[in-house]
# Entry
Amino acid sequence: MRTRTEAVGGGADPAVDGPYDLRHHGDAEVRDGALTDLAVNVRTGTPPQWLRDEAAGSLGALAAYPDGRAARAAVAARHGVGPERVLLTAGAAEAFVLLARALEARHPVVVHPQFTEPEAALRDAGHAVGRVLLPAADGFRLDPAAVPDAADLVVLGNPTNPTSVLHPARTVAELARPGRVLVVDEAFMDAVPGERESLAGRTDVPGLVVLRSLTKTWGLAGLRIGYVLADPTLIASLERAQPLWPVSTPALAAAAACMRPQALAEAESAARQYRADRAYLLAGLREFAEVSVAGEPAGPFVLLRHARAAEVRARLREAGFAVRRGDTFPGLGPQWLRVAVRDRGTADRFLRALAAVGVR
# Structure
């Protein structure tokens, strides 16, 4: 497997050096116009009514400052760890900023293609960031040997956005070593049946930091809630970097509610539905000779390759569909598109639109 490793700005490879708009996210694709949203990976039909009621029920307490103890304890119990190993954040995005500001990393490395916010946060904090680019020819699979030994901070998504690749937990754990912080972004792990390959709750992996988000499965992107699981010393460092009361009272209520057994069962059911709907979409995509699917998708989205992807994306917008451009992800280019998994009816309409815009 040929994997490239470079420091940003230190090589001549355009796939490494960019330019990439690291601040471009899927929501930008759907801000204008009434489009069927296949660009944002938030589960449709969410938040469920019971979760809306939980958040709304907390509004009577808004005069008091937020108290995160109950939500923190609920997250800890859900993962079988002590509350001192949990930090609640305003979405996983805040956690990336806290890590970038609190850690004194000398050689941070981000494994790409992946969510670009971790690298953006590191760069904003003044870090020189190295990139490890996983090759499409190998299905974007992780090779631990590709990460430089000198890296003292490594960031990886699992399952990875935008590739939808689910890396084996044992392979991810091979990246850990004394003196290194290993950050695993598991924002989409609850969309995987059984959360297989998750490292959340593991306390035997040195330097492990797991980030989780409640915004995707539960439709809470506008509420901003996520959490960090890590060694208590590192949690304390991140907490000192947070402003006071960073998570609102409604978000805390939602977090506690999402840890209940009934909610976990609902999330598991949704993950199984994702798996079935993804298989249906992939079967339809196989009818298009011009389209190839990256790797073995395991998340609630798929990464597609088409020689004229930019043109296809523009024509799909005219046909009423928003898909995520891929050329803002390091390691990808203008021939890539990310498509969210939706129900079968939406998939059928999307596949018909693909044919109508000239994809064969």
Summary: Residues 7-14 have pLDDT under 50 and may be disordered.
